[in-house]
């Protein structure tokens, strides 16, 4: 089930709309009668699924580079690469 609501009404009723989205409803937000955004529930991703997605991405990057560069670089973990240049 979905509903369309104007932008001004959506701003005024955001908490209510979020509750409806959490219960499975999809809500379109319109500006001047034209849909411009959609509110919908998000599907949580498990840690294991996220790791698998990162590994699949690493394989695609390596394939695109035609094996010229290993990824992640030798001696580094995915975490090391993700946090490169971060200050702790």
Written description of the protein model:
The protein is of the alpha+beta class. It folds into two domains: 2-39, YefM-like fold; 47-82, no CATH class. Helices cover 43% and strands 19% of the residues. The chain has helices at 7-12, 14-22, 47-64, 78-82; strands at residues 2-6, 26-31, 34-39. The chain has a three-stranded mixed β-sheet. A hairpin with a 2-residue loop joins strand 2 and strand 3. The N and C termini lie far apart (46 Å). The mean pLDDT is 86.
- Net shape: elongated
Averaged pLDDT: 86
Give the name of the CATH architecture of the largest domain: 3-Layer(aba) Sandwich
Structural class: alpha+beta
Percent range for β-strand residues: 15-25%
What is the H/E order?
Answer: EHHEEHH
Helix content bin:
40-55%
Report the CATH C-level class of the largest domain.
Alpha Beta
In short:
The protein is built from four helices and three strands.
Name a few traits of the molecule:
3 strands; alpha+beta; 4 helices; elongated; YefM-like fold; 88 residues; single chain; three-stranded mixed β-sheet
Topology (elements, then pairings):
Layout: E1 2-6, H1 7-12, H2 14-22, E2 26-31, E3 34-39, H3 47-64, H4 78-82
Parallel strand pairs: 1-2
Antiparallel strand pairs: 2-3
